[in-house]
Structures are given as C-alpha cells and as structure tokens.
C-alpha cells in the first residue's frame, strides 16, 4: 500500500507537467504589423498635438507648481528603491490576495501562493493571514479536478482495496484524497506555524548553480524562518505532516473488512489504521513536499523560458535616489 500511495501524487504531478509543457510549446505570439502600428501612433500624436496646443502654456504653469522636488520619490517608486513582494525583479507572480504572499501558480495551474521570488525580509504573517492564504490555495477551483486525477490513479492501482471498485469506491477515494490534502495543508501551513510562530513561506534562492539551488530547496524541509526572520528547525513541516498523517490514518482511512471478489467471496482486507501505515504516509508527505520545493525553486526559470522571456530582459525596479 505504501509504494502505491507514493506513486499516486508523483504520477499526477508528472501528468500535469507534460500537459502544461505541451500546451505552452504550442502557443505562438499573435503577429503584429509594426508599420501599421507606427502609422497609427503618428496620426494619434499629430491629432493630440493639434488639440492640446492652446492648452500648452496653462499646462506648463500647472506642472511647475506640482513638480516633485529633487530626490523625492515619484509614483511607482519607494524610498528604499525596492519593489513589493511578488513584483520584484525577475518575479513571475504578482501580489497575492494576502499581503506578503504571491499570486503564482505552478505550471500555470496549481496554487503557489506561499512562494516568493526575491522576497527578502518581509513583515510576518498573522495567524489569520496564514489560515486565509492556506484556505485560498487548498480550496482553489483547480484542486477539485486535481484530487479527481489522483483518485483515478488510486482507483486504477486498487490502492486501499477495502474500498473496492466502482463509482462508490471512487467517491470514497476522492474524499480520502481531498481530506489528506486539506488536513496536511492546514497543519503544515497554518496550524503549526501559528502556534510556533514560524513563517510558512518558501523564499526562492535564485543564487548559485543547479546543485547549490537544489540543495537549498531540499534543506528547506528542515530549515525555515521564524516570524522574526531567524533561521529555525522546520517544526511546522516535520511535526505538522506527522500530525496530519496520524489524523487521516486513524480517522477516515478504511478499517479491516471482508470484500467479495470473483475468486474469493469472503476475502479479508487488513486495516490501514496502523502505526506502520502512519509512518509510511508521513514519509510520503515529506518526500512529496521535498520534490515540490525543488519544483518551486526552479519554476520561475521554467516560466520565463516558456514565456520566451529571459531574466535579463525584465526591467529593474526604479531607485528613488536617481
């Protein structure tokens, strides 16, 4: 059971990757006509000049009064010369619905709201904000078909055979898959970070080569930030996922039962509510979260490649001192 449990989310993740990359490769930018564009711009500029000519003197007088003094920040700039989280140089996402989070999506689909690129040191999330951003990601519309894909793989593998086969069994597997995801997301991203005052966000590195960045992403399973910005052991991930595995295993996963098969009308199926199964689920969640962190680390680079946009082509944030 444990091996099959491991393959389900990984297989679904690979499937989504292949579909996304194939769709992105088929996308072609709409052709443009630079001559027509330049002619239209020239006509617009000429008409605007003729209409605004009588107002030129009045505009200049008003502008001289409202012009900012030298060295003061203008609109769109900050005193520190840095951009807000989620809109930094080279970022692939925008500001999320919760302050200090992003609006990014892995493979343009899966919510990635707790990942920040070039985030720096940010104000801590309150307990309410942690629960809100986790809820937004957990109950995002894309999650419902995602759970359906994972459940279909589980059904095909006959994982947890006590459920049997058929639509009723698929419904049970779907509920189990959704429950596992919901419990684990909230325990790791909201409940334990709120209790232990830890930051559930993943700060992408973007520094060094492939090996260095991979090592950084993998170690974030065990290293995180406190709400004050200090490095800490990632109790939220390690103990949160363990607590989630125990809740799901001993509450709604199938108990021992008898099922009828064509060769054995009274086949005994052992209970999944065991300590060994809990440990297996815990290890699977840690492994999956580790792989997901590596994907999060390199996703902005992949996003730029798929968008035909290099990191050097992204404009740098304006500096108020210049």
Report on the architecture of this protein.
The chain is mostly helical and 322 residues long. It has one domain (2-6, 85-311). The chain is 53% helix and 8% strand. It is built from 9 helices and 9 strands. Strand 8 (257-259) and strand 9 (267-269) form a beta hairpin. The protein is elongated, with a radius of gyration of 26 Å. Mean pLDDT is 76; it is low at 1-7, 14-34 and 58-92.
Key structural traits:
three-stranded antiparallel β-sheet, 322 residues, two-stranded antiparallel sheet, mainly alpha, 9 helices
Strand portion: 5-15%
| Radius of gyration over C-alpha positions, nearest whole angstrom | 26 Å
Uncertain runs with pLDDT below 50, 5 residues or more? 1-7, 14-34, 58-92
Shape: elongated
Q: Please list the strands of the largest sheet in the order they lie side by side.
A: 4-6-7
Question: Structurally, how many domains make up the residues?
Answer: 1
The structural class is mainly alpha
Helix content: 40-55%
Distance between the termini: 62 Å
Mean pLDDT: 76
| Biggest sheet overview | 3 strands, antiparallel
Helix count from the secondary structure assignment: 9
The assembly state of the depicted protein chains is single chain
The total count of strands amounts to 9
The SSE order reads: HHHEEEHHHEEHEEHEEH
Question: How do you describe this structure in short?
Answer:
With 322 residues, the protein is mostly helical. It has helices at 2-26, 34-52, 56-66, 127-138, 143-157, 167-196, 210-219, 235-251, 275-306, and strands at 105-106, 110-111, 115-117, 198-199, 202-204, 223-226, 231-233, 257-259, 267-269.
């Amino acid at each position: 059971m444990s091996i099959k449990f491991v393959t389900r989310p990984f297989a679904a993740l690979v499937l989504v990757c292949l579909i996304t990359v194939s769709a992105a490769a088929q996308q072609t930018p709409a052709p443009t006509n630079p001559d027509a564009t330049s002619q239209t711009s020239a006509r617009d500029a000429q008409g605007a000049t003729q209409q605004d000519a009588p107002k030129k003197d009045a505009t200049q007088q008003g502008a001289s009064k409202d012009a900012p003094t030298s060295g003061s920040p203008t609109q769109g700039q900050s005193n520190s010369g840095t951009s807000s989280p989620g809109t930094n140089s080279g970022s692939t996402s925008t500001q999320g619905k919760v302050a200090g989070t992003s609006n990014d999506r892995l493979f343009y689909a899966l919510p990635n709201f707790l990942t920040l690129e070039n985030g720096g040191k940010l104000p801590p999330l309150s307990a309410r904000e942690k629960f809100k951003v986790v809820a937004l990601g957990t109950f995002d519309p894309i999650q419902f078909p995602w759970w359906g894909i994972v459940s279909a793989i589980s059904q095909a593998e006959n994982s947890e055979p006590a459920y049997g086969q058929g639509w009723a069994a698929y419904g049970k597997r779907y509920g189990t898959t959704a429950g596992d995801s919901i419990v684990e997301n909230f325990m790791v991203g909201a409940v334990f970070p709120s209790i232990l005052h830890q930051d559930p966000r993943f700060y992408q590195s973007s520094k060094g080569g492939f090996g260095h960045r991979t090592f950084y992403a993998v170690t974030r399973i065990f290293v995180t930030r406190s709400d004050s910005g200090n490095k800490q052991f990632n109790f939220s991930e390690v103990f949160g996922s363990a607590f989630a595995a125990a809740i799901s295993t001993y509450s709604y996963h199938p108990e021992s039962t008898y099922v009828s098969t064509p060769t054995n009308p009274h086949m005994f199926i052992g209970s999944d509510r065991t300590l060994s199964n809990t440990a297996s689920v815990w290890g699977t969640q840690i492994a999956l979260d580790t792989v997901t962190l590596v994907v999060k680390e390199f996703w902005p680079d992949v996003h730029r490649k798929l968008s035909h946009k290099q990191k050097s082509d992204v404009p740098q944030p304006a500096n108020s001192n210049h």
